[in-house]
Design a protein that fits this description.
CATH class of the largest domain: Mainly Beta
Structural class: alpha+beta
CATH architecture of the largest domain: Beta Barrel
Order of helices and strands: HHEEEEEEEEEE
Strand order of the largest sheet: 4-3-2-1-10-9-8-7-6-5
CATH topology of the largest domain: Lipocalin
Largest sheet: 10 strands, antiparallel
Radius of gyration: 27 Å
Helix content: 10-25%
Number of helices: 2
Distance between the termini: 79 Å
């Protein structure tokens, strides 16, 4: 046995096993520490409102009849088409980023909408937090909106949990849109 230590074969074998073990442990540690890339839900496309699938609260609603979602670099662009009280189409557009910056757009004439967007941890839903300030007769009314977007029906439908809070109270609707 002493002869084996002298020629180094046992020492080389032990070193080789320790080296392989260290490589495996190191590789496993690196892989578990590396964040897994999660694909975010893909909302791009044209969407048409489906009133039958939607859950609507009582009262006046100003929900979009059509939504078009596109991508511009790192930004998501949402174009909403609403029908006005006299039947004309009102189109509003906002460009959202997911870096915490506030996006500002104009809605309903000169009213300003300020929005931020975030992804859920699993990337399967998008939350848009918005504030709209309306000026009327010298008074400003603020409405807060929270939208939670998610795909349903294997991506054929878009469901938006839409909650508004204003001086009149809080209203929650689930708006469903079918892919055009």
């Amino acid at each position: 046995m002493i002869a084996l230590f002298k020629n180094g074969s046992i020492t080389k074998g032990i070193l080789r096993r320790n080296f392989i073990w260290l490589l495996l442990v190191g590789f496993t540690s690196i892989c578990s520490a590396t964040p897994i890339l999660i694909a975010n839900a893909d909302f791009k496309g044209d969407w048409n409102f489906n009133e039958q699938k939607s859950k609507l609260a009582e009262g006046r609603r100003m929900n979009a009849q059509k939504i078009k979602v596109s991508q511009e670099g790192n930004a998501t662009v949402i174009e909403r088409t609403l029908a006005s009280q006299n039947g004309d189409n009102i189109v509003s557009s906002e460009k959202l980023t997911f870096d915490g910056k506030t996006a500002e757009s104009t809605v309903f004439g000169t009213s300003k909408r300020k929005s931020t967007a975030t992804w859920s941890a699993d990337g399967q839903s998008m939350t848009i937090n918005s504030t709209i300030a309306f000026e009327r007769d010298g008074n400003t009314t603020e409405i807060k909106i929270v939208e939670i977007w998610k795909l349903t029906d294997n991506g054929k439908s878009l469901s938006i949990d839409y909650t508004t809070t204003s001086p009149r109270g809080t209203t929650t609707n689930t708006l469903v849109y079918d892919k055009a």
